[in-house]
Amino acid sequence: MSNQTWAEWHAGHERNLADPHGFLAITSLNFLDATPRHFPDAPGEWSTGPDGVTVELADGESLTVDGAEVTGRHNFGVLPERGGVFPGFGDAVVEVAKRGGFDIIRPRHPSNELRLQFHGVPAYEPTEKWELTGRYVPFDEPRDVTVGAAVEGLEHVYESPGRVDFEAPTARSRSTSTVPPTWSAPTRTSPPAHCPRRRTGCRSRSKRARRSRTSVNRDRRARHRRAIAPPLQTSVRQLNSGS
Question: What predicted TM-score, i.e. pTM, was given to this entire model?
Answer without folding.
Answer: 0.66
